[in-house]
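Hey all, quick one. A colleague (J.T.) asked me to put the PMT job into the tracker so the inputs and the structure tokens live in one place instead of scattered across chat threads. No bug as far as I know, just bookkeeping. Sequence used:
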Amino acid sequence: MSLAGKHIIVGLSGGIAAYKTLSLIRLLVKNGASVKTVATPNALHFVTKLSLQTLSKNNVYNDVFSDINDFSTEHISLADWADAMVVAPATANIIGKFANGIADDALSTIFLALNKPVFVAPTMNSRMYENPAVQQNLQTLIERGIHMIEPPIGELACGDEGKGRMEEPEVIYERIAGFFLTSQTFSGKKILITAGPTYEAIDPVRFIGNHSSGLMGVCIADEFANQGADVILVCGPSAIKSKNPIVKRIDVVSAKEMFETCKKHFETADITICSAAVADYAPKQIAEQKIKKKDESLVIELAKNPDILGYLGEQKTEKQVLVGFALETENEFLNAENKLKSKHLDMLILNSLNDEGAGFRHQTNKVSMLFANKETKHFELKSKQDVAKDIVNEITHYIF
Ligand code: PMT
């Protein structure tokens, strides 16, 4: 697997496994990558600056304040230059800094400035590795989309047996190369995704909403971004965050806002996926003040919201791919087929509230996919991350 043209920052913190990182740098360079190294002062107790410079064929960046030749902010220009960063070895100390936003050396400063994929290969004594503080920091990083290269079980430098040894350079290399290989599938493609609920204001305090958490759409956005796409996520009110920093999120509240935002981005989108649970109706008038409790009943007149997916289906060109969702409670397939046809979709993803673990709020979903060529595929109940992988996979076959 070649990494020709890829720019990789190799970060080293102070662990004995730093000697193995020299082989990793060789592998990266041999396979076409341009490598720049960033070392903490402690890392340079284990390997020399000269070794890093010679193998990477570039200067070593190890001090935020010295080595400034051109007075540029080097941590920013390095972050702009990179396609990815790998931190190996990553000690408990540097993992703690990454997880808590501490920037007190060159490596932790670059980490904060970087919005590219980061691979972290932890190394430490197994008791340190299992310490709840370290585990919590690792979990935080995983939740933020860091690619963790777990240490294998084996003999440690201190003589103990356990988990904490840095993974071998060849395995780390394969993880990075594998990432770029899959990530190329959608590179250059622009993907527009809607997700989450919409809130339709009744007065300054209340709204009409629904149970969508936004997870399904966020997972789809992350999966496309993992595969190199340029992703715009138009998201209703949702606390779920993307794991992939490449996803450009635009937060909206109401269906009308979601509609206006989608209209702006649809024309240049290659693929659009509408997974949002959009309110079909909104209060005709939004009361200026909080509505007071008076009568036994209250009537709120609702007006139809724009059908975003329906509108996009009418605008769509031959080259564009449009995918919709259907959340049904009865006559699932009949309703789904009607939506596929009436909204001019290429593909429709059906989930039913009659299936345990499917639809709103759950971490899981169970879907069927209906295609414009009348084909239908059924999938098992699985995590929404895996459902997103299936969706992206089907779109790959469908499109390419
Ligand atoms: O967010 P989660 O908690 O993870 O839950 C995921 C989900 C259940 C919200 C998701 O899997 C899903 O089913 N999304 C679509 C929900 C929905 O509103 O379905 P619908 O059958 O009412 O709408 C059909 C399609 O038209 C959808 O693609 C919807 O985004 C779109 N639509 C609907 C109304 C409207 N005014 N504009 C639209 O674009």
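Adding what we noticed when we looked at it: The chain has a mean pLDDT of 93. Residues 194, 196, 212-216, 255, 274-278, 280, 305, 307-309, 324-327, 339, 351, 359-361, 384 surround PMT (CB under 6 Å).
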